[in-house]
């Protein structure tokens, strides 16, 4: 089994056909076809169902692709490390983070470490994601770890810590509910509600609760693409916004108040990494400091296991 065969197989999977894979790899189409055929002969099973104009993975091919993807990622990382060693440069710390968490929780912890003289590498690369992060996103990245919303499934991922806290409701300071200490679903029966796109678990809980509480009422549901947009809409009087407690903590809320909801709508985050990746000491310190920060600052935060069950 040769690396070039595995590269050809992976390229066909991601490109959808042999001709596109050949262009990506800079090889001829017959060469790619032969390499995939030789790989199948060596494996003893068929990788693709060849139906024009595209080809699809067999069940065995899909399972084998999961293994191959990890091998190729590891090889790519090895190549990058070798390049850094040749040039004498120190490999940067790379972090994959949900955009809102990168701008709040991550920034705050890095600043605290900087002030305390807790050293980390001179070069830090933060790759923001604005969508729901998948196991593939983490496995295909060069990140040392990912700070993301959960759940996320993947046998090749290690969960370093995870936990959840109830969401809160953001509203203008002049809103009729701003004087309340907590808000129930019945309180927002006729109130326009803003949620964040992609926060599927949060949106499901909210929608499920609102259906029961606001049946027959007239209200508008607005979905915003980012926390900043949601808060701007709140300031403009377009409604109240359901906010996750992690990325809203420490944010400047001029003209806005945050109130807990009587119904528990949990939001879960955590830190995960590729199971095969060895994490340097400074990366492990940062992961620990992130956990300490949420434990000490996020109201009603609890640690959970990977399935969302409380850890005692």
Describe the structure.
The chain has 312 residues and is of the alpha/beta class. It has 10 helices and 13 strands. The protein has a 6-stranded mixed sheet with strand order 4-3-5-12-6-13, with helices on both faces. A 5-stranded mixed sheet has the order 9-8-10-7-11, sandwiched between helices. A two-stranded antiparallel ribbon has the order 1-2. The protein is globular, with a radius of gyration of 24 Å.
List keywords for this structure.
single chain; 312 residues; alpha/beta; Arc Repressor Mutant, subunit A; D-Maltodextrin-Binding Protein, domain 2; 3 domains; 5-stranded mixed beta sheet
Summarize the structure.
The chain is an alpha/beta fold and 312 residues long. Helices cover 43% and strands 21% of the residues.
Draw up the topology in text.
Layout: H1 3-15, H2 18-25, H3 29-43, E1 48-50, E2 55-57, H4 59-87, E3 93-98, H5 99-116, E4 124-129, H6 135-140, E5 145-149, E6 157-166, E7 168-172, E8 193-196, H7 200-213, E9 221-224, H8 227-235, E10 240-243, H9 245-248, E11 256-260, E12 266-274, H10 281-297, E13 302-303
Parallel strand pairs: 3-4, 3-5, 8-9, 8-10
Antiparallel strand pairs: 1-2, 5-12, 6-12, 6-13, 7-10, 7-11
Helix pairs in contact: 1-2, 1-3, 1-4, 2-3, 5-10
Name the beta content range.
Answer: 15-25%
The side-by-side strand order for the widest beta sheet comes to 4-3-5-12-6-13
CA radius of gyration is 24 Å
SS field, number of helical segments: 10
Q: What is the residue-averaged pLDDT?
A: 84
Tell me the span between the first and last alpha carbons.
47 Å
């Amino acid at each position: 089994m040769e690396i070039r065969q595995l590269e050809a197989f992976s390229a066909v999977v991601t490109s959808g056909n042999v001709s596109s894979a050949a262009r990506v790899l800079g090889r001829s189409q017959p060469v790619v076809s032969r390499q995939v055929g030789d790989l199948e002969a060596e494996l003893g099973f068929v990788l693709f169902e060849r139906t024009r104009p595209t080809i699809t993975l067999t069940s065995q091919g899909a399972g084998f692709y999961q293994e191959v993807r990890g091998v190729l990622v590891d090889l790519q990382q090895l190549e990058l490390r070798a390049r850094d060693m040749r040039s004498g440069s120190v490999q940067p710390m790379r972090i994959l983070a949900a955009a809102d968490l990168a701008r709040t929780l991550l920034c705050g912890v890095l600043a605290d470490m900087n002030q305390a003289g807790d050293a980390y590498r001179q070069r830090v690369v933060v790759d923001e994601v604005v969508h729901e992060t998948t196991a593939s996103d983490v496995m295909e990245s060069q990140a040392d770890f990912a700070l993301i919303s959960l759940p996320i499934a993947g046998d090749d991922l290690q969960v370093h810590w995870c936990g959840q806290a109830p969401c809160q409701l953001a509203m203008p300071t002049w809103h009729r509910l701003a004087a309340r200490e907590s808000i129930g679903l019945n309180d927002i029966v006729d109130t326009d509600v803003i949620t964040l796109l992609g926060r599927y678990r949060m949106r499901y809980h909210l929608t499920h609760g609102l259906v029961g509480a606001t049946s027959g009422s007239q209200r508008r549901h607005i979905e915003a693409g980012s926390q900043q947009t949601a808060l701007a809409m709140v300031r403009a009087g377009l409604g109240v916004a359901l906010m996750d407690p992690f990325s809203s903590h420490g944010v400047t809320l001029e003209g806005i108040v945050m109130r807990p909801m009587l119904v528990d709508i949990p939001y879960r985050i955590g830190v995960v990494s590729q199971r095969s990746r060895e994490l340097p000491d400074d990366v492990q310190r940062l992961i620990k400091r992130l956990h300490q920060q949420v434990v000490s600052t996020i109201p009603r935060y609890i640690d959970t296991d990977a399935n969302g069950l409380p850890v005692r």
